[in-house]
Amino acid sequence: MSVIERKTKETDIKAELNVYGSSKAEIDSGIGFFDHMLTALTVHGGFDLKLKCDGDLYVDGHHTVEDCGIVLGKALAEALGDKSGIVRFGSAYVPMDEALSFCAVDISGRPYLVFDAEFTDDRTGTFDNCLTEEFFRAFAFNAGITLHVKNVYGRNDHHKIESMFKAVAYALKTAVRKNSDGSVVSTKGTL
To answer: Signal peptide: which range, if any (predicted)?
Structure first.
C-alpha cells in the first residue's frame, strides 16, 4: 500500500494505492468521465485505489488530470519499490464495442510514453479528450515506466478512451504479477 499526497496552488490530491488489491475504487476528481476512467483502471487492473482531488476546475481540467497522473505514478513507483519479484512486462488488447486499443508496459525505471490516438470530438462529458495523453505521460514519467498506448481503431471517443484505460489496466496487471523466484527481471540485476 502506498499513500501519496500532493498539494499545489492548482490541486490538492491524496491517493492510496494497493497494487495487489481486490478492484475497489473510491475516486473523486471532480470530472465525472475521468473518475469513470480511473475506476476502470482500478477495477480491471485488480488494484485498490482511493483518490480525492480538489483542483482548479474553474480554469479547466488540465491541472487536475495531469496532477492525478503524477500522484498515481508516484504511488505505483512507491508500491513497487526496487521492482524485485515482479514479471516487469505486460501487454493487452482490449475491445470496447467498435473500438480496439493496445498497451505494452515495461516497469523498467526508464520513463517513456508512446501515445497514438486521434479523437473526433473535443470532449467526453466535461473531460477534454486531449488530456488522455497528458494523464498517461504524467503517470508513466512519475512511475518510471515505459508505456505504449495505441487506439487501433474506433469511432466513439468514449469507447476509444475507455478501451485505452482498460488496456493499460490489463498490461499493468500482468507486469506487476509476482515472478517465480522474487528476483529482479533484468540482465543488469537491477532496475
So the answer is: none
User: Nearest CA to 87 among 178, 13, 9, 22?
Assistant: 178
Task: Answer yes or no: pTM beyond 0.85.
Answer: yes
**What are the grid coordinates assigned to 55, written together?**
483542483
DSSP-derived letter for residue 22 is -
Judge whether 66 lies within some domain. yes
Residue 68 inside a domain? The answer is: yes
pLDDT, tens digit, 9 for 90 and up, residues 130-188: 999 999 999 999 999 999 999 999 999 999 999 999 999 999 999 999 988 877 776 67
Residue 159 lies in a domain: yes
CATH of the domain at 163: 3.30.230.40
| Total domains, the chain | 1
Structural contact between residues 51 and 42, judged by C-beta atoms closer than 8 angstroms: no
The H-assigned helical ranges of 46-176 are 62-80, 131-143, 157-175
CA-CA distance, 32 to 180, in Å (whole number)? 40
Is 190 among the domain residues?
no
Strand pairing partners for 123? 128
List Cβ neighbours of 28 (8 Å cut-off, separation of 6 or more): 35, 51, 52, 53
Tallying the residues shown for the chain, one arrives at 191
CA-CA distance, 113 to 101, in Å (whole number)? 15
A 10 A CB-CB count for 55 gives 23
Residue 26 belongs to what domain range? 2-175
